[in-house]
């Protein structure tokens, strides 16, 4: 019987799941995903976390508890510090293995491989080989697994660039044909936007209104870089760079009718990045912005009302 | 060029004397009042942390008072402090202020870059002068830190409430005004003597509490509702985990040397958290362990509301508390914090510590 590796359907799942899945499968492990987010999963997470933790962290803990209940042998919860030079992820990712360990005592063994491209590239590489060796001692198998993971990730990212959201791509859905009445950019952390429960199906709702949705993942890396280049000081968060780069690029191109910013309540990095985005858009006076803040108390009806009002306003502006 | 800078506890005294010593025209930020905080909150992002908001209030009041150049520190992440200056500049621009912002980025092993920035400020001053002013400021900072630490000890034992604070304020002002190294030493000795003559009850055995948490919130009394003074006047001996001199040593001097070392604090934190998490999250965990080992009665953890690194620490501290048997309370503070609520929670915490001390003393004598 193969070893079961649990991967929580939260946080970086939306960024790297295809690579992780390919990696562990190639090593002969069975990958077990936690269930789709439900009220119970969220409630369990809220109970395990300190009150001030942000919504995605609470949800992550809920998914870990779900995996625990599913009886996996390992839980893959890497410490992802940095995925590119001179940039970090949010501090919560740096302490995620500890938040998990102390929030949920008695978890199965956590694989907390450290990924730190900025400060220790070679060590990161060694860490990945070490992780692989726990499943298969032969180094060429590890090499093959890494290759498979890279390939799967490339295929995934190319799908995103063709107009699919991470959720579309992960569920194997095709994005709707682009024939929208309006084009709206929806920017925010992928783990908020793509969790149907947390985002209350935000993207699908907009699509139902006849809107064509653009997300940061659909832009090319050079577009993001170009957008981010207008900042005086380079931003040191990868996700912050993607959010601001996409927002500034789309503002410069003028190719959208509106922007919806989605952030979790009390999000540290977003408090600064969204502020800068809002200010730049306000100065341009061309593209309206809607800012949505999510937490475990957000009511769906309120969000729908605001989305409808925003879309109505965009149509009215277009008609003028 | 009329220069201003943000408040941060006694560091603003040091900044003031450094900049005037370099012959620059300085507009010191007006003292932090409710108005400062209101102005800052009004013009800052809602979920930005409290230090950013107070900084904004300082900048607006200083610019109104005639300043045209702001000195601010930078950073390389992942704590959002490193991006404060960028956001603050844009907000102040939109408010219509005309000013220049000089951001001092941490040297990251290259001390000369920081010195070059300093030189930019002081175009017509010699290197020698800059270095001697920096050294003088360094001595002042160390003197102020030792006065401060002594005051925390004395205040818990003072007979007349407020005596220590008066003596400390006078002593800090004299250190700030000193013109040479000898004068700093003189002011320090006089200040220590002044603190030692405060009427004290030395038979009192006060509760001992360690303060850990985010550096700005610890250093700036207006941000932490004068927690040290409040606790001291409740008869508690407080020790603060971070002093500005330690911070400078760690981040500006030692980090620019090619040393591979791990501080005592980080070693102490290792069983719970063996990795940096930005800001002072790692230190908060390690310091709590150290206070427990030194037999402190309790630890108070202070963080600005929404501070991610400290939230990571907060998630770990209950485990530290359980393992090492030391009560820990976290205060998450911002413009919404009510003093009465904090005092009530503090009193309850102190009652718990006092009870605990009594019961452990009882079991010891029974054995």
Concise structural overview:
The complex is a heterodimer of chains A (320) and B (367). Chain A has 14 helices and ten strands. With 320 residues, chain A is α/β, with parallel strands linked by helices.
Question: Can you describe what's shown?
Answer:
The complex is a heterodimer of chains A (320) and B (367). Chain A has 320 residues and is an alpha/beta fold. Chain A has 2 domains: 4-160, 3-Layer(aba) Sandwich (Rossmann fold), CATH 3.40.50.11890; 163-319, Response regulator (Rossmann fold), CATH 3.40.50. Helix content of chain A is 52%, strand content 14%. Chain A has 14 helices and 10 strands. Chain A has helices spanning 13-26, 39-48, 55-70, 91-94, 96-103, 121-133, 139-161, 166-171, 190-193, 202-208, 221-228, 238-253, 268-284, 300-319, and strands at 4-7, 30-33, 74-76, 79-82, 109-111, 114-116, 182-188, 211-214, 258-264, 289-294. In chain A, strands 2-1-3-5 form a 4-stranded parallel sheet, sandwiched between helices. A 4-stranded parallel sheet of chain A has the order 8-7-9-10, sandwiched between helices. Chain A has a two-stranded parallel sheet with strand order 4-6. Chain A is globular and about 65 Å long. The model of chain A has no long low-confidence stretch (mean pLDDT 93). Chain B is an alpha/beta fold and 367 residues long. Chain B has 3 domains: 2-124, 3-Layer(aba) Sandwich (Rossmann fold), CATH 3.40.50.11890; 127-155 and 157-205; 206-367, Rossmann fold (3-Layer(aba) Sandwich). Helix content of chain B is 56%, strand content 11%. Chain B has 15 helices and 8 strands. Chain B has helices at 11-21, 34-43, 50-64, 84-94, 111-121, 127-155, 163-177, 181-196, 215-219, 227-233, 244-253, 264-269, 281-293, 308-324, 339-366; strands at residues 2-4, 25-26, 69-73, 100-104, 207-213, 236-240, 298-304, 328-333. Chain B has a 4-stranded parallel sheet with strand order 2-1-3-4, with helices on both faces. Chain B has a 4-stranded parallel sheet with strand order 6-5-7-8, sandwiched between helices. In chain B, β7, α14 (308-324) and β8 (328-333) form a beta-alpha-beta unit. In chain B, α6 packs antiparallel against α7 (163-177) and α13 (281-293) runs parallel beside α14 (308-324). Chain B is globular. The relative contact order of chain B is 0.10. The model of chain B has no long low-confidence stretch (mean pLDDT 91). The A-B interface holds A 49-50, 52-54, 79, 81, 86-92, 94-95, 98-99, 102-103, 114, 231-233, 235-237, 263, 265-272, 274-276, 279, 283 and B 45-49, 74, 76-80, 82-87, 89-91, 94, 103, 272-273, 275-279, 281, 305-309, 311-316, 318-319, 332.
């Amino acid at each position: 019987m193969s070893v079961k590796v649990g991967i929580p359907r939260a946080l970086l799942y939306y960024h790297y799941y295809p690579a992780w899945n390919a990696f562990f499968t190639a090593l002969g492990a069975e990958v077990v995903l936690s269930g789709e987010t439900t009220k119970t999963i969220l409630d369990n997470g809220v109970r395990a976390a300190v009150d001030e933790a942000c919504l995605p962290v609470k949800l992550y803990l809920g998914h870990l508890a779900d995996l625990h209940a599913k009886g996996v042998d390992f839980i893959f919860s890497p410490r992802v510090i940095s995925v590119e030079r001179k940039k970090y992820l949010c501090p919560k990712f740096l302490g995620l293995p500890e938040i998990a360990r102390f929030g949920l005592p008695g978890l199965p063994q956590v694989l907390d491989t450290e990924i730190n491209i900025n400060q220790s590239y070679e060590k990161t590489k060694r860490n990945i080989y070490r992780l692989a060796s726990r499943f298969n001692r032969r180094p060429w198998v590890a090499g093959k697994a890494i290759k498979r993971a890279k390939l799967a990730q490339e295929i995934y990212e190319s799908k995103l660039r063709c107009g699919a959201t991470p959720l579309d791509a992960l569920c194997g859905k095709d994005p709707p044909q682009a024939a929208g009445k309006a084009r709206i950019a929806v920017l925010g952390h992928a783990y908020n936007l793509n969790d149907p429960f947390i985002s209350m199906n935000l993207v699908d709702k907009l699509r139902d209104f006849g809107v064509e949705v653009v997300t940061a993942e659909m832009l090319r890396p050079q577009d993001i870089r170009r957008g981010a280049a207008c900042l005086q000081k380079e931003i040191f968060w990868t996700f912050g760079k993607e959010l601001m780069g996409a927002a500034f690029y789309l503002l410069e191109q003028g190719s959208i009718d509106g922007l919806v910013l989605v952030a979790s309540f009390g999000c540290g990095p977003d408090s600064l990045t969204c502020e800068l985005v809002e200010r730049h858009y306000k100065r341009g006076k061309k593209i309206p912005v809607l800012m949505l803040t999510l937490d475990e108390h957000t009511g769906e009806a309120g969000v729908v009302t605001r989305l409808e009002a925003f879309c109505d306003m965009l149509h009215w502006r277009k008609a003028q | 060029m009329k220069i201003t800078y943000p408040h941060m506890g006694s560091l603003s005294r040091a900044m003031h004397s450094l900049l005037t010593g370099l012959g620059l025209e300085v507009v010191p930020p007006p003292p932090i009042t409710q108005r400062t905080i209101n102005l800052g909150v009004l013009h800052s992002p809602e979920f930005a942390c409290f230090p950013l908001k107070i900084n904004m209030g300082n900048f607006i009041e200083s610019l109104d008072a005639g300043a045209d150049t702001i000195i601010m520190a930078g950073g390389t992440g992942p704590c959002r402090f490193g991006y404060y200056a960028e956001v603050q500049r844009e907000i102040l621009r939109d408010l219509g202020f005309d000013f220049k912002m000089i951001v001092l980025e941490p040297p990251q092993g290259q001390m000369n870059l920081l010195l070059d920035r300093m030189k930019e400020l002081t175009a017509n001053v010699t290197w020698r002068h800059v270095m001697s002013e920096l050294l003088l400021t360094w001595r002042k900072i160390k003197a102020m830190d030792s006065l401060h630490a002594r005051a925390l000890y004395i205040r818990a034992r003072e007979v007349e409430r407020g005596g220590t604070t008066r003596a400390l304020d006078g002593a800090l002002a004299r250190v700030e005004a000193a013109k040479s190294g000898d004068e700093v030493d003189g002011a320090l000795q006089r200040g220590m003597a002044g603190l030692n003559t405060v009427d004290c009850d030395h038979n009192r055995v006060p509760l001992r509490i360690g303060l850990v948490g985010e550096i700005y919130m610890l250093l700036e009394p207006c941000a932490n509702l004068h927690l040290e003074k409040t606790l001291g006047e409740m008869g508690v001996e407080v020790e603060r985990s971070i002093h500005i001199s330690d911070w400078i040593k760690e981040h500006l001097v030692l980090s620019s040397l090619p040393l591979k070392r791990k501080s005592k604090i980080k070693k102490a934190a290792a069983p719970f958290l063996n990795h940096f998490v930005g800001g002072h999250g790692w230190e908060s965990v390690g310091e709590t362990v150290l206070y427990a080992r030194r037999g402190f009665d309790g630890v108070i953890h202070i963080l600005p509301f929404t501070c991610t690194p400290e939230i990571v620490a907060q998630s770990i501290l209950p485990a530290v508390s359980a393992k090492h048997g030391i009560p820990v309370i976290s205060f998450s503070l911002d413009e919404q914090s009510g003093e009465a609520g904090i005092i009530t929670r503090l009193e309850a915490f102190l009652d718990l510590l006092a009870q605990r001390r009594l019961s452990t003393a009882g079991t010891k004598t029974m054995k």
